[in-house]
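Continuing the batch. This is chain 6 of the set; chains 1 through 5 are on the previous pages. Same settings as before, nothing changed between runs. Recording input and output for traceability.
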Amino acid sequence: AVVSTQSTGQLNETTDTVPIKPASERNQLALQVLHESGVTPEHIETRTLYNDDCPGIPQGKLHMWIDIFPYNDSIPAPIVINPREPQKYVLRCIIYNTEDVILDETNLLGEQMSDIYVRTYLEGRKKDRQETDVHYRSLTGEGNFNWRMVYPLDFIIQENKMIQKKKGKFWHIEKTVMKVDPILHLEVFDKDVLSRDDKLGWAQLDLTRVPAPTKTAKECTLDVYENEDRHPRMSLFEKKKILGFWPVYDDSLGTRELTGKVEMELEILTEEEVAERPAGKAREEPNSNPTLEPPNRPETSFNWFTNPWKVFKILIWRRYKWHLIIGLIIILLIIFVVLMAYTAPEAINQAIYSG
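Output for chain 6:
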């Protein structure tokens, strides 16, 4: 038995609290006491650092792994504790289409519509976000894009973590290294000119546990995120490429509400694969793997402010052509009658005097 200031420890024949197999009963007993007393999870010592210039004020903590060996015994080879080196990958995200996006605005003709675009970014890298162009005047919630987004990332496979390097403050010389989950943020917006863009829906996809998408927009529901039996999780780093429809939702009120569906392709590549199969952002060169054609959008999809003549031609002339023609004829007739009434007396007087 071992007696400490906190408790008395008795060696158990079997214990699940010891993660390693010690060489002797005394080592096992000492480690068991450390575990049960809550002093340390393993052979890890924690010491507070101080500075004589700041007496009594902790300057941080030092975590140490302590191994003690008998002087006369042979010392085993040291354990390699170098940090794992991340592997460089490139994530390619292609936004093909959206379906059933909620219509957030009303146009001049009283129709419900949305000016749709899609934004993505990786966890901890919102400043590096990328966006599609805008599908203007969608009357059905459908948006067409064929837009590629490319994100380089450093990933540790053994830990399923991305490596992020950021400067904490502007006066810091070196960047802080952080490990974050490889989450892709997917957001759908309605473009506004005179106010802030409206976020219509969003979703977060863990690249190590991506829910299986649906093949069609009709099948795409919130069940994709809520039912793991029908939509098993898969690692993009193992699957390499996933294509399908994922729903976006609004849970700002506490419950998820389906607000749209995004047809998207996710692909992860190593540096070697990127060199063999290059691809540019958006539809820029090299536009390959796969080649993305400009989307086939309706001719009503355009920016009102930059195409006033097109607004008149498509939205007004096509709908009210005969009304405008009849109105123009009536106006011309009124002008003719007014001119006749204005000039007729003078013409009659001239005819009388000349006669």
